[in-house]
Design goal:
Elements: H1 2-10, H2 14-42, H3 46-72, H4 76-104, H5 108-192
Helix pairs in contact: 1-2, 1-5, 2-3, 2-4, 2-5, 3-4, 4-5
């Protein structure tokens, strides 16, 4: 799965984490497009319908930019999965285009049927793929954080042990020097008497 691929690499590369984030943005854009499609259907004013159509087109562009960003950081296998997403999104957008055209022709009931049926099914499939990517990456990143925390704790303990050993060696050396000096001073004072 696409989410498994990105999540495995997200542990080791910031690029994979960025790709996962880009795909999450794409998912948000997909949901926004689907919600705006409903607003478009319910709108009666042609000027408002045209405005909603422009808003949806902008969101489509943002979605495509997010997917392109994820694709930049993807390996060959991930690119193949992203291509599958693009294909599913293309089918979804074809349905959306028909919904928008039907709605503009004032066939709101027919547009709603089209949107709620096939469009919603395809949208849900796209969203499902993106949700799995996000969930898997979140889990893998949490595991990587836990592993990093363990390594940090181990390094900290090692430093404390090394510092303790160094302090013991330093104190032993100081004790040895002090006893040597005090014995020498005692001998010198005996000689002086």
């Amino acid at each position: 799965d696409l989410e498994k691929m990105f999540s495995q690499r997200a542990q080791t590369t910031p690029e994979a984490a960025q790709a996962a984030l880009s795909l999450a943005h794409a998912g948000q854009n997909l949901l926004f497009i689907h919600r705006q499609e409903k607003v478009l259907i319910l709108e009666n004013d042609i000027a408002e319908k045209e405005k909603q159509t422009r808003v949806i087109a902008e969101q489509k562009q943002q979605l495509e930019n997010a997917v392109a960003q994820a694709e930049k950081n993807a390996n060959a296998e991930e690119k193949a999965r992203i291509a599958q997403f693009r294909e599913a999104f293309s089918r979804f957008y074809e349905v959306h285009s028909r919904v928008a055209k039907t709605s503009m022709e004032n066939g709101n009931v027919e547009a709603m049927k089209l949107s709620a049926g096939k469009g919603r099914t395809i949208s849900d499939a796209c969203d499902s793929v993106l949700d799995r990517v996000i969930e898997k990456n979140t889990g893998e990143m949490a595991a990587a954080k836990e592993s990093s925390d363990k390594l940090y704790a181990q390094a900290r303990v090692m430093l404390l042990v090394m510092l303790s050993v160094a302090m013991i060696i330093g104190l032993a050396t100081a004790f040895f020097l002090l006893s040597y000096i005090s014995v020498s001073l005692a001998k010198a004072s005996q000689l002086a008497r």
